Give the backbone structure.
Amino acid sequence: MSSPVPPDIVEIERALSRVAHMLTRFRQHDRTVVAAGVPVDRAAVPLLRALAENEGPMRPGELAVRLAVEAPHVTRQVQRLERAGYVERVPDPDDRRCQRVRLSGSGLEAVESIRASGRHWISGALAAWSPAERERLAGLVNRMVDDFESHSDADPADPADPAETTDTAGAGAAGAGSRVAAPSGHAGSGRI
């Protein structure tokens, strides 16, 4: 018999489902990417962003792992983006038989345009929110993503029972407050 799910978890799951649906709709892609003047499909955007966030060229396999997709998907996207002039292949300094992928100048401009368009849309959508509310939201969302990533990376053979873990509500509130105070220092704060 499973234990009842707390109402706050039900509401969080519901809200995340709504956000995921909204962000993956074609109309949202039109509002940000197409409005930015970047003629790429939705599947290309995470790849462009991953390359922009990385400090140097990446192997296609690294991109596939980072994006949690199959390698052939990355290969197809890289080929399309290369034809469009947004990415270029460069020799792998560690293995000359391999190649890495990096953004071209046009690719970097495209990512910046996509980011600017997305930020403009978010700014309009949250115009009624105070700066403090937006800062708090950014801190909590980044914390949630970090915790989701940590949880998904956890050993599945050793699932932790949330009811048996140490109470971190007090620490979490303090941690969220410290992140909110300086969200730009958070690793995920540059993501859009």
Notes: The mean pLDDT is 81.
